[in-house]
Amino acid sequence: MTSNYTKPVTFEEDMTALQNLVEQLEQGDISLEQSLKSFEEGTVLLKRCRAKLAETETKVQNIMDAVETNGTIEENAE
């Protein structure tokens, strides 16, 4: 039986993979088909990176709002 579970990938791992793909494409020594495949993979990585950045930005904004409102970063300050 095959598991569908995949380990969550970090932002840094996605960025490194994206940078590697860009370097491959910039070198220009891969086939057109491989270039297209790399481009497609890169768009997926870019989308994931943007989503992770947006999620982090939201979390930071929530923390900043809590500090402004409550003077603390604790969500349930007493």
**Bulk shape:** rod-shaped
Strand content: under 5%
Q: How is the main sheet built? A: none
Secondary-structure element pattern, one letter each: HH
Give the low-pLDDT segments: none
Calculate Rg over CA atoms: 19 Å
Number of helices: 2
What is the helix fraction of residues, given as a range?
over 70%
Structural class: mainly alpha
Separation of termini?
50 Å
Instruction: Give the count of structural domains.
Output: 1
The average pLDDT score comes to: 87
How many strands appear in the DSSP assignment?
0
Describe the structure.
The protein has one domain (11-70). The mean pLDDT is 87. The radius of gyration is 19 Å and the shape is rod-shaped. It is built from 2 helices and no strands. It has helices at 11-27, 32-70. The termini are far apart. With 78 residues, the chain is mainly α. The longest helix has 39 residues, at 32-70. Helices cover 72% and strands 0% of the residues.
Quick overview:
With 78 residues, the chain is an all-alpha fold. 72% of the residues lie in helices and 0% in strands. The chain has one domain.
Give structural attributes.
78 residues; mainly alpha; 72% helix; rod-shaped
Task: Tell me the layout of helices and strands.
Layout: H1 11-27, H2 32-70
